[in-house]
Amino acid sequence: MTFKALVTAKTAEGVSTTLTDRELADIGEGDVTVAVEYSTVNYKDGLALSGGRIMQSMPMIGGIDLAGTVEASDNPAFKAGDKVILNGWGLSQTHNGGYAQKARVPGDWLIPLPRKFSTREAMAVGTAGYTAMLCVMALEHNGLTPARGDVLVTGANGGVGSIAISLLSQLGYRVIASTGRAAETDYLKSLGAAEIIDRATLSAPGKPIAGEKWAGAVDSVGSHTLANVLAQTKYRGVVAACGLAQGLDLPGSVAPFILRNVTLAGIDSVNTPREVRLEAWARLARDLDPGKLKSTVTEIGLADVPGVAAKILKGEVRGRTVVNVNA
Fold first, then answer.
1. With CB atoms counted within 10 Å of each terminal CB, which end of the chain scores lower, N or C?
2. Contact, 80 vs 108, CB < 8 A?
3. pTM above 0.85?
4. 2-113+296-324 architecture in CATH?
């Protein structure tokens, strides 16, 4: 039995990704077999398909997300016919991922699909939206409320940024969106952003500490942007950091932490414990506006993934990209 899969492999020229037929016997280790219906394209997927040190071995099927229906299970938690989702864990790193019509994975990595979502809608959320929810939960855990002041969202046009804006505005926060694409102002305001600022005001080297502007922030950019975000966070403010679009470095100062008691909360979506995942998805089902979610989504097929993955690394993709693996 064969199935369609998007396989990334090393070549003499570097790395290439090809849509091909695979044998079910080559699908990988696990105790649950899933008929995949949808996946997504995230920034991490762009890094993986470009050879950016995500995949620990090749050839490998990429895709850090998947949603579909259980076909067979040796895990007592799941049975044939169950709708499931998977975000992160070893997908696209040590284990074949979601860019295929079939997946075999450890059942411990799966969670049940929330009843509110179809598999397509769950992948419209995907790792980006689930990460955005983890950021919101971290802000709340550290005491942030709408009454404390504005919340900044950097990388606002991306998947994490788009859903973070929607979630925060739905929860009553006044949201400031940072973007390098002024033409997207109407889109960002439709998601709930009250104010738009140019990302150039944050992306260059700045002062160790600057005027207080926001009570909290969700940052998916890193580097100078994160340093400047911290430098302008209000006393006892909270910043959730979840990305590295500008860089892995943090060229800042301890000043915001020791002079303003700012909290920097790191967000990892890959190895998040199961109970936290379940809470995050329950919150997404409750707090995410379906209409706003729908407005962020573009659907593509497997063959279109490499092109979109390249664009996402350049910051040229708006919102969420859903991959219909059967298209």
1. N
2. no
3. yes
4. Alpha-Beta Complex (3.90)
